[in-house]
Amino acid sequence: MTIWIVEDDPLQAEGIEKVLRDAFPKAAITLIKTESGFRSSFQAIAKTADSVIILDVMLRWSDVDTRTPRPEDVRKGGVQRAGLRCQRMLASDSRTKHLPVILYTVLEQHVDLDDELADLPKNVRYLNKASDENQLVKLVRDLSSGRR
Predict the structure, then answer these.
(1) What sign results for the dihedral spanned by CA atoms 18, 107, 6, 44?
(2) What are the pLDDT digits (tens) for 14-69?
(3) In the CATH hierarchy, which top-level class contains the domain 2-145?
(4) Do 56 and 81 contact (CB within 8 A), yes or no?
């Protein structure tokens, strides 16, 4: 199994990675720190059939201040829903549309994300970061075993 963690906060990323390495010692775990990093890694994700993707909803576009213009959807949508754009990118490609995705965020489902989470496919789940870390492990386990 390959676990892709898409998280821009270094402390949160470190904690998530440690919890998952302890729970899934045989898994390959890859950290992606930005939305542009996710887009750059998309082809690698698409080639890894046994992936689980953990997406923060609010992500920076890049770690560096670059003069390269951001894509229009990023300029219009901003950082607040970057992980949702990443999830839609996965859902729109036949190679990745069935991969398990966990939207792991500080945003509250029924307060901040009600409209965006209303019609998610069965392979996409929401989990608040305030949850016990064991819930993340259980969700990764459930989603990855559900494909077998």
Answers:
(1) positive
(2) 999 999 999 999 999 999 999 999 999 999 999 998 999 999 998 887 766 666 67
(3) alpha beta
(4) no
